[in-house]
Amino acid sequence: MAPVAHAHDISAHGESLHAPHGGESKALIRFDDFCFAYDEHIALSHIDLEIAAGDCAVLMGDNGCGKSTLLRAINGLIFAQQGHYYFDENEVSEQSMKDASFAKKLHARIGFIFQDSDAQLFCANVEDEIAFGPRAMGLSEEDVAQRVGDVCELLGIGHLRTRAPYHLSGGEQKKVALACILSMNPDVYCFDEPLNGLDAGTRRWLVDFFGELKSAGKTLVIATHDQSLADEVADYFVYMGPEHEYTDKPHLHINY
């Protein structure tokens, strides 16, 4: 990795920029001078950010600014090449993720719904897709069946249980991908452009469901260009700048 030059002076930020609660709430997600590059291409430059449990933080910025990469970092899919990332005060790094127990616990607490839901569906039928996560967590088959049944009823997809995921519509695939995460009951939900490719009815359903997740105390981190979605669900915006840094725009609190 090439050295990542500072694109901004961290000291120029007010305290509330990186800690939107003013330090009153313990950060569930915390980045400390986090840098990452794909080969020689900088993706995240000196990120300092805190997200508390129960927050709905919406990542804003132009294409290529690092929003999706930041979601990947939160989920332990990439690691700091400089700086640190902590989840619930435990550092998430290449070394810590080699511990199978640590990695299993992290992935049980953080769910990631990709922009292209089809990319994360790989089983022969919907029922096996939803059961995959709970089985990986070591739950009994009785508990797995209970969770599959519960999320199918919650999302109204029971009629899809025997269908192959690749034969479903975009909206159906999105619901199945969400069901896979819900079946693990994580603390944090990460969404990358969740409304892309959905019809109006499914978009409305998903936005309403975000509200239900917020009411349940879940933490949401959503990357989107959809301003109407952001305005409706965000507690605050996190702006990513063209130099792949957390920019000097303050958090905008809108739905506290």
List its traits.
single chain; 256 residues; alpha/beta; Rossmann fold; 5-stranded parallel beta sheet; 4-stranded antiparallel beta sheet; disordered N terminus
Describe the structure.
The chain is built from 8 helices and 9 strands. The protein is an alpha/beta fold and 256 residues long. It has a single domain, classed as 3-Layer(aba) Sandwich (Rossmann fold), CATH 3.40.50.300. A 5-stranded parallel sheet has the order 6-7-8-3-9, sandwiched between helices. The protein has a 4-stranded antiparallel sheet with strand order 2-1-4-5, covered by helices on one side. Helix 4 packs across helix 5 and helix 4 packs parallel to helix 6. The chain is globular.
Structural class: alpha/beta
Tell me the name of the CATH class.
Alpha Beta
**End-to-end Cα distance:** 40 Å
DSSP strand content:
15-25%
Number of domains: 1
> What is the radius of gyration?
18 Å
Q: List low-confidence stretches.
A: 1-18
Corresponding CATH architecture? 3-Layer(aba) Sandwich
What is the overall number of helices? Answer: 8
Q: Biggest β-sheet, characterized?
A: 5 strands, parallel
Mean pLDDT rating: 83
What is the H-and-E element order?
HEEEHEEHEHHHEHEHE
- Globular, elongated, flat, extended or rod-shaped: what is the shape? globular
How many β-strand stretches? Answer: 9
Q: What would CATH call the homologous superfamily?
A: P-loop containing nucleotide triphosphate hydrolases
Helical percent range? 25-40%
- Biggest β-sheet: strands ordered side by side in the sheet: 6-7-8-3-9
CATH topology (fold) name: Rossmann fold
